[in-house]
Amino acid sequence: MRIGHRPQRDKRVTTHVALSSRALGAKGIYVDTYDDVLEENVRSVVDRFGGDYSIKTGVSWKEAMRDFDGVVVHLTMYGLTVNDAIPKIPKDKDIMIIVGAEKVPAEVYQRADFNVSVGNQPHSEIAALAIFLDRFTGGEALYSDRHGKMTVVPNERGKTVVENPE
Ligand code: SAM
What we know:
37% of the residues lie in helices and 21% in strands. It is an alpha/beta fold and 166 residues long. α1 (7-23) packs parallel to α6 (125-137).
């Protein structure tokens, strides 16, 4: 759940929040402000590179958090250390991860089951999300096969892209 998205100012950052979360194993993203261009861009990547990833914009974070039947993890530099928090977060439940843009409302800190910091310095929602997901999943999503129209094959030098039959 991406809170505080401003379509003009944040278009690249929120796109990267979505793409990074997808690459690192998330199943989808909710964005609070409606943004059809963002939806189209992310769906186009999913269409080409495959996988099971959804995007929905114009979603109220209050309702999404209230209705979510799982564990809510809010990433904030003020939270518990990532090393202390990860062993406490259940692996057998759905997880909703909240990231902000500017100041995050106090209610989010209250409702979250875990307020988790990735270091105690201010940085970026993209970096915080990527590091958290990599640690939480043990990196297992990075090279998983998404069965898309194309697959990028690791190559020491140059680019190898395989077109997959429909
Ligand atoms: N001053 C803002 C605040 O009070 O939340 C910081 C906003 S920061 C530019 C945008 C988002 O990046 C935050 O809402 C948080 O989700 C994430 N973030 C930034 N630094 C972080 C850190 N050290 N640990 C975890 N998340 C962080």
